Description:
By secondary structure, the chain is mainly α. It has a domain at 19-60. The chain contains 2 helices and no strands. The chain has helices spanning 19-31, 38-55. Helix 1 packs across helix 2 (38-55). The radius of gyration is 15 Å and the shape is globular. The two termini are 24 Å apart.
Amino acid sequence: MPRDANPLKTEQITLSVNAQTIWYLDRLVETGLYGNNRTEAARVALYDHCKLLISQGALEMVPRLRATDIQPLS
């Protein structure tokens, strides 16, 4: 079942990582659970880790946006 489109605007960032981190990202891709490339693996790992930190109370949950705050995708 496809996911709904993300109503939040995405922001692009650039990450520089060392060779060991690349090795770990490649292992995550090999599992098939973290996307098809290093970029997707880093995105999923970061997203999952944020969820873990929120569940542990180490990171505050971001307030929900009101429908009027969401800009339509153009």
